[in-house]
């Protein structure tokens, strides 16, 4: 029998791997919400465009990115399954229909622009344009419902806090979409799109406040009033103010730079409120749910090697397709 020594009995380099992997799972979820979030936001803003050239510009803006951005959702599911298999099994079995709703929305969002470009008659493009909007709005909504139900241990398909958080995530994706299009568009289209930014951030903050009030009043066990959650709320307010200020100053790159702060503050808040539980509905703590030391060490080494490659790929992708969309560019 192979003797793995300390590698099989002690965490790698003495690191707190349980907490690190819990944080990594939520970091990956944040990466998906940030990167695919602006794609969803552009899809929602697509509904505001009637001019064909403007619609083509919006599709061209996300064309090189959206399918790569979706990889982060696959990585999230894979990381959750690899490190916390019991949590993965419980969540996906309890929220089976919700998972299929997210998957269906993502399929619709991905298929619609491809079909939209196949024919240029009005009825065809109207139908697939609406499908693109529906998929772009429903995917983040269902993801928000799922996240709220995970945190609160809710087993039902629909709940009031789930709906509120789902709408908040949709509003956040519109915030991201406005910031992204501020960098990628020009002229009258950019001025019009940017006008949706204050409305979106206002809606997001209102929905966040409603969620916080619910937690304070009805879920005192969550621990929202602890220092770290309150600090994350303050970070959100400061970032929202920065977003508005940079939009007004027409500093669109800086405006987009506030989006990951808003996204990761939200995801970190969920993680902080959840910890040390990994699955409240099942009563599983992070220590209960984590895999044993040997596979966890192997998984940690593999991730340390692979994640830099993933970040390198995305760095090359975004640098290659940086800059505004030029006249005549299209999705295809």
Automatic annotation (TrEMBL):
GO MF terms held by the record: electron transfer activity; oxidoreductase activity, acting on diphenols and related substances as donors, oxygen as acceptor
Mode of membrane association: Multi-pass membrane protein
Transmembrane helix among keywords: yes
An annotated GO BP: aerobic electron transport chain
Record field: transmembrane: 20-48, 69-89, 95-112, 132-152, 158-181, 201-218, 224-245, 252-277, 289-314
Keywords: Cell membrane, Membrane, Transmembrane, Transmembrane helix
Pfam families: Cyt_bd_oxida_II
Main location: membrane
Annotated compartments: Cell membrane
Keyword Cell membrane in annotation: yes
PANTHER family to which the protein is assigned, alphabetical: CYTOCHROME BD2 SUBUNIT II
Protein name per Swiss-Prot or TrEMBL: Cytochrome d ubiquinol oxidase subunit II
């Amino acid at each position: 029998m192979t003797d793995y020594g300390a590698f099989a009995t002690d965490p790698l380099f003495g690191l707190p791997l349980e907490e690190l992997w819990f944080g990594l799972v939520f970091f990956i979820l944040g990466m998906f919400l940030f990167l695919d979030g602006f794609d969803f936001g552009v899809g929602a803003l697509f509904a505001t465009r009637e001019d064909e050239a403007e619609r083509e510009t919006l599709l061209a803006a996300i064309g090189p990115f959206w399918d790569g951005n979706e990889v982060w959702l696959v990585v999230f599911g894979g990381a959750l399954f690899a490190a916390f298999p019991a949590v993965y099994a419980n969540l996906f079995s309890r929220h089976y229909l919700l998972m299929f709703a997210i998957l269906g929305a993502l399929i619709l969002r991905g298929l619609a622009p491809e079909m939209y470009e196949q024919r240029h008659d009005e009825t065809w493009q109207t139908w697939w344009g609406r499908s693109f909007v529906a998929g772009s709005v429903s995917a983040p909504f269902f993801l928000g419902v799922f996240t709220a139900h995970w945190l609160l241990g809710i087993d039902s398909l629909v709940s009031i806090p789930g709906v509120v958080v789902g709408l908040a995530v949709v509003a956040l994706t519109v915030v991201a979409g406005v910031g992204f299009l501020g960098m990628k568009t020009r002229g009258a289209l950019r001025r019009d799109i940017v006008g949706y930014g204050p409305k979106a951030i206002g809606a997001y903050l209102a929905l966040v406040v409603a969620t916080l009030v619910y937690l304070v009043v009805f879920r005192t066990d969550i621990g929202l009033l602890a220092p770290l959650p309150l600090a994350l709320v303050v970070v959100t307010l400061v970032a929202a103010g920065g977003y508005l200020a940079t939009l007004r100053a027409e500093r669109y790159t800086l405006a987009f730079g506030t989006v990951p702060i808003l996204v990761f503050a939200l995801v970190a808040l969920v993680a902080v409120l959840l910890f040390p539980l990994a699955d409240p509905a099942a009563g599983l703590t992070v220590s209960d749910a984590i895999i044993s030391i040997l596979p966890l060490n192997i998984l940690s080494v593999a991730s340390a090697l692979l994640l830099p490659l993933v970040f390198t790929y995305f760095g090359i992708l975004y640098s290659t397709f940086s800059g505004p969309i030029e006249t005549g560019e299209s999705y295809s």
